[in-house]
Amino acid sequence: MSEMESVNKIRELRDAFGSFMTGVTVVTTCKDDGTPLGFTANSFASVSLDPALLLVSIAKTSSNYDNFAHASHFAINILAEEQKDVSNTFARPSDDRFANFVWSKSENQNPLIDGVSAWFDCTTYQIVDAGDHAILIGKVENFASAGFAGLGYYRGAYFTPAKSSTDVISSMKVMMMALIGHENQILLEQNSEQKWTLPHLVVDKDGAEKALEKIFAAYQPEASPSFIYSVYDDVTTQQQYIAFLCNTPVSTAHKGQFVDLNDLEKLTFVDSALQSMLMRYRKENYLKTYGVYYGNQTNGTVRQIVKEEV
Ligand SMILES: Cc1cc2nc3c(=O)[nH]c(=O)nc-3n(C[C@H](O)[C@H](O)[C@H](O)COP(=O)(O)O)c2cc1C
Questions:
Q1: Distance from C-alpha of 227 to C-alpha of 289, rounded to nearest angstrom
Q2: C-beta of 39 in contact with ligand 1 (< 6 A)
Q3: Could you tell me if the CB of 42 is within 6 A of ligand 1?
Q4: Pocket test for ligand 1, best of 22, 42, 151, 154 (most atoms within 8 A of CB)
Q5: 61 Cα nearest atom in ligand 1
Q6: Collapsed DSSP state (helix, strand, coil) of residue 86
Q7: Ligand 1 center to 51 CA (angstroms)
Q8: Closest ligand 1 atom, CA of 43?
Q9: Residue of the nearest CA to atom 12 in ligand 1?
Q10: pLDDT of residue 310
Q11: How confident is the model at residue 171 (pLDDT cuts 50, 70, 90)?
């Protein structure tokens, strides 16, 4: 193999290794004179529970290699999602990588960085020579886990799984609607354009159940939820709607008004999706056999809820 071919092969191998998703750690120790040392590593792995062992590998080219290969102790700091800057700092040359971070020394004289997802304070158990790296095997003497979501690393880039999923959820507006029925009536209200709509509220960080509770408190405190009646996305407004079928023992309301289901044709609704949902409700309420709708504002399927014979 030519030198060029072997360089390419190594790059391909590194890329292939990089397809394994990992977290990111900072491995730390202290020199005898108390100087803290550390480097970023994603080669961390847990090894054994009894005794408690872990490993991380360090490149022989690292300027820290001699110090870590001869250290009697080291710590693993598992970085939290917000700690990309810590990872970058400990992967780049610097006179003092610790200068901009809050940290403290562990019982085994290892630097522990504040705000990490977890840390493991170790004594060195074994050093295994392994090609262009050495494997540092540590015996866990102390550890703590804060429960923060960990920073991820995949194909040469960071990722933040927990943050990404909450971003997706918060970018998708969910509207909770309550179909509060009483016998042959349904609670509706008119908006500022005189169009009819169901009691509704945008679901905020408190969640769907709280949104429903707030609707009941505002419109009809004696109402209680039965089951989800309709879930649909409006692809034009990028909004998701969840309609809950709810019952109430009374036909009075703090807000809005109960309307006879036979009068639906006389009303103008905010949109056709709501109108067809209420038409379905009228039919099903008459038969007392309900279905659940899944789909978007124009197309979807209704799955019948099987009535249980008691
Ligand atoms: C996400 C990430 C993971 C890394 N993993 C390792 C590793 O497992 N072992 C290692 O020796 N270097 C690893 N490095 C590289 C070292 O952090 C970096 O080369 C080193 O800190 C360079 O400085 P030094 O020569 O002063 O040690 C990684 C770097 C990054 C950004």
A1: 13
A2: yes
A3: yes
A4: 42
A5: 25
A6: helix
A7: 27
A8: 8
A9: 41
A10: 37
A11: low
Asked whether the beta carbons of 227 and 284 are under 8 A apart, the reply is no
Rounded to the nearest whole angstrom, what is the distance from the C-alpha of residue 61 to the centroid of ligand 1?
10
CB 72 within 8 A of CB 137: no
- Cα–Cα dist 114/101, whole Å: 8
pLDDT (tens digit, 9 = 90+) per residue, 2-15? 777 888 999 999 99
- Tell me phi and psi for residue 3, to 5 degrees: -60, -40
Q: How many CA atoms lie within 13 A of 25 on its CB side?
A: 25
pTM: 0.64
- Residue length, the chain? 310
Q: What single DSSP character describes residue 306?
A: P
CA atoms of 39 and 27, how far apart (whole Å): 5
Residue bearing tokens 């550390």: 38
CB 181 within 8 A of CB 246: yes
Q: Name the one residue in this structure whose structure tokens are 């991820």.
A: 152
Instruction: Indicate the pLDDT class of residue 308, thresholds 50, 70 and 90.
Output: very low
C-alpha–C-alpha distance, residues 290 and 282, integer Å? 10
Amino acid at 17: F
Tokens 């690393």 belong to residue = 153
Report residue 62 as tokens: 């690292």
CA of 107 to the centre of ligand 1 (A): 25
Asked if pLDDT for residue 307 goes beyond 70, the answer is no
Any ligand 1 atom below 6 A from CB of 86? no
pLDDT reading at 309 higher than 50: no
Counting atoms of ligand 1 from 1, which one is nearest the CA of 65?
A: 27
Q: What confidence tier does 199 reach under pLDDT thresholds 50, 70, 90?
A: very high
250's enclosing H/E stretch is: none
Is the beta carbon of 40 within 6 A of some atom in ligand 1?
yes
